[in-house]
Amino acid sequence: MRKYEYITVLGHNTIRLPFSELKQYGPVISVSSHKHDVQHLDYVWTRQEKDLLWFLQHRPSPVNCVTTPELYKKYVFYDEVHSFPPISPQFNLTLDVNTDDQTLALLSALGLCDKRILLVGYDISDHRVLKDLRSVIMLHPDMKFYFLCNPPKTKQLDYCSNAECILFKDMERLKNV
Amino acid sequence: MSDRPDRINYIVKVLWPPHCRNRNQKVLEDRSDIVKEMNGMRSKLENFLKASCSGSFKVSNEYDMQGFNIGLEQGPDVYNLILEQATIGYEVDREIGRYNIFSDKYIKHKILYTAKGIVVD
Hints:
The complex is a heterodimer.
Chain A lengths: L3 E7 L8 H4 L5 E4 L11 E3 L3 H8 L7 E4 L1 H6 L6 E3 L17 H12 E8 L6 H13 L4 E6 L13 E5 L10
Parallel strand pairs in A: 1-2, 1-6, 2-3, 3-4, 4-5, 6-7, 7-8
Helix pairs in contact in A: 4-5
Chain B lengths: L9 E6 L9 H6 L1 H21 L4 E3 L7 E6 L2 H9 L1 H4 L2 E10 L4 E10 L2 E4 L1
Antiparallel strand pairs in B: 1-3, 1-4, 2-3, 4-5, 5-6
């Protein structure tokens, strides 16, 4: 499969922007809590079997799910179920059962995209999520990360040269980047 | 395994009948009966796939001493191919390849037959 140039990672926070508009910025990978407007999601990261089945049974077409190796082994004959991408050993990340879904959705997005990642509704209030996000950003200097938020802009990613905080109202300019 | 040909998500190897396996080219040149049996088996499988698959499939023409590869688009067709082994009279290799969207490669898995169905290890 050819990698996408752009991809959007949808985190835990709810956003006012309709998903249909978000789709204009490229394919969307989301955590499994967004079960409305599912038709606009391209991929979902989930570790819960009931969520996996919910997305697989979605009509008219099931959503592509990225999941844990355990669930993948069980649902390997479902074309829409994908296993988590192999993680480079250089990653300074400890992936375990406590790793946040947003981090895992972001890592999945990295496997699908090679140029630009938009982080939308991404909740960085948890210290570990923020630490993991910074590690991922710093390990991918060739990739550009845009953190979308409402005012005020966060300063948490200021020292990452390949990350930028953008307000939702200025989002339009990303179409021309 | 190599990059994916169009729409092929799974690769399954169907084994030759036991007495046809591990035959080198010299033996096959002398034993037309074995070659006939191998070709017959390939045709039988192709007809079965034509009748039962809802997605696309491709039977490989490359010679392999153990069997021949079949590429399939849809998971349910693979499941059916594995399930019907005894009915149609063929044996599927324990290892299958599944296309991985992240690595753009086929990842090999061992098939496990469990009471709850067929899974991979």
